[in-house]
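GTP cyclohydrolase-2
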Amino acid sequence: MTENIGVLGKKSPQRTGVERVVNAPLPTVYGKFQAVGYLDHDRGDEQVALVHGDLDANGGENVLVRLHSECLTGDAFGSQHCECGDQLDAALRAVVAEGSGVVVYLRGHEGRGIGLLAKLRAMALQAEGLDTVEANLALGLPVDARDYGAAAGILRDLGVRSVRLMSNNPRKREALVQHGIEVNEQVPLLIPPCESNITYLRTKRERLDHHLPHLDAVAHLS
Ligand SMILES: [Zn+2]
């Protein structure tokens, strides 16, 4: 059995789930957030939730939430292979516009949970004509290996009881419900497609059940 190593290398063998470690003010171009840092003792990941406003204002009910799966290429490099960067941007803006809400940035979710290098290998295969599902399978990897247990634990710790979930992915909603967080509404996060990502988005819709009705309007893109 592996031993859990806690913050700053302190051993914490009994701990499970997520532990709140730090709460720091984070002014951003979108507005003011609190960056609440967590250690996930089950998986060893360091996680962060960006909290805006007062989540308790409505008793923790109906909180606007985004569970954003880490995507280095999309979030940091402006990749047009996927729409992750634009979704993160839209989610942060929406939470500020709402006056309160949470964006949980989920590390360990690269490439739907297969990791950065595997994701890049899958992207190389997609450049050769495979779709995003076929590419993962060709590498002998799961199509979606993401776990939302930590996300649910973080929301619980923040006092969130029910959410309006910004996502087009019904599986994300189901996963959160399975982990005991009530989802009152699924709020679409529709990013206008571009030539580079239209095939990827269509695959998400057709093979991964994402709700992307706006793609109907762009039949002209490749
Ligand atoms: Zn991405």
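thats it. The chain has eight helices and seven strands. The helical segments are 72-75, 84-98, 110-113, 116-127, 132-138, 149-157, 170-178, 198-208. bye
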